Amino acid sequence: MPGQESKDARQAAARVIEGVWRIESARIIGALARMLRNVGLAEELAQDALVSALERWPEAGIPDNPAAWLMTVAKHRALDHLRHATLQRNKEPELTYEIETLLRDAAPDLEAALEDDIGDDLLRLMFISCHPVLSTEARVALTLRLLGGLSTDEIAHAFLVSEATVAQRIVRAKRALAEAKVPFEVPRAGQLVARLASVLQVIYLIYNEGYSASAGGDWMRPKLCDEALRLGRILAGLLPDEPEVHGLVALMEIQSSRARARLGAQGEPVLLLDQDRSRWDQLLIRRGLAALERAGQLGEYGPYALQAAIAACHARALTPEQTDWQRIAALYDALAQLMPSPVVELNRAVVLGMAYGPALGLELVDALIASDALRNYHLLPSVRGDLLARLGRMEEARAEFEQAAALTNNLRERALLLARAQGCGEKAGQGDDGL
């Protein structure tokens, strides 16, 4: 039937366009931003090319090179915009000549000229979307939008906020970049380290939200983990001599290797020491260990490489009993020196409790409670509950797990904590019966 064939063609084209856009949108936006020096306008014109594809491909057929088609149309739109802007300003011919000279890389071979700079364009786009002039929330949203190719709806769903909130963050971010006249360039050597730290932080935040969702009904959000890992791999390819880039990639690769084992049959969380390690992805572990080795070859371990080294200790242990807790404790000591924070100290307390006994871990946790540094942080009572349970103080442990459950916004995690509280209560009752 002709009507059905037309519908099938539209659906086939839409699937191809969605896949190509997810992969190529950052390259296209980056190329246009280099021309226009305006990220917001670059995205708009790239979207125009996407609309053109949605209109034309179902009728004309999918091009042999869909990515090149989108790039060509988008760049022609950018050229038309610049020429139109020149005429609107009613400038003399020399200004038109100036613009044409500036854009001479676009002619005569549009795609070839673009490919020459494509790595630089992606790198520039990363530094723009993660610019310190933006708030952390804006950096995350803009990065997922421009470099991840996610829609505002997808970003909103991932972070459990309204689509309008995400849209506002993105609009304000673009406006802030334009008003600050942020140059579309990779920072110079003297600024690179500080700016790179911002890029790495954004990728790290995206990954962490995917790995342990802060709220909602899912323990993990794999799409965010995948996007962060993809961005990290791209960045490692663009900055191959930066050790902390490889350190972050190593961390994400190794952590991602556990994904299948972190969820039970009903989507419930499975804690590290309870996981079936035969389900860990050995390919991701090998990739992570290779990235960690590369980081070590390039320089001393930074915070991300140290965390990757900690993850590697778990990855190398075939069973929980084989875990080298003393090695992990030493790595956490180094991390605490390099990146002191209450959260690092809390994790260090867990590890010292495993390496040298729960009493030592509890001592460190109680010091954190006294400092009031982690008020309302649900993992503080959760860790304390675990240490108390290992010391046989079940009733106290039950109260800590209940407090942790009340503080978390993740429904899966709350259920796990309440189950642990119930288990401690039952054991406490059994102990009472034996007195």
Automatic annotation (TrEMBL):
Sequence ranges assigned to domain DUF6596 in this UniProt record: 195-295
Highest taxon of source: Bacteria
Which residues does the UniProt record annotate as the domain RNA polymerase sigma-70 region? 27-85
Instruction: Please name the InterPro entries in this protein's record.
Output: DUF6596, RNA_pol_sigma-70_dom, RNA_pol_sigma70_ECF_CS, RNA_pol_sigma70_r2, RNA_pol_sigma70_r4_t2, RNA_pol_sigma_r2, RNA_pol_sigma_r3/r4-like, WH-like_DNA-bd_sf
In this chain the RNA polymerase sigma factor 70 region 4 type domain maps to 126-177
Keyword annotations for this protein, in alphabetical order, are: DNA-binding, Sigma factor, Transcription, Transcription regulation
Membership in a protein family:
Belongs to the sigma-70 factor family. ECF subfamily.
PANTHER family in UniProt:
BLL0085 PROTEIN (PTHR47756:SF1), BLL6612 PROTEIN-RELATED (PTHR47756)
**Name of the protein described by the UniProt record:** RNA polymerase sigma factor
State the organism named in the record: Massilia mucilaginosa
Q: What is the lineage of its organism?
A: Bacteria, Pseudomonadati, Pseudomonadota, Betaproteobacteria, Burkholderiales
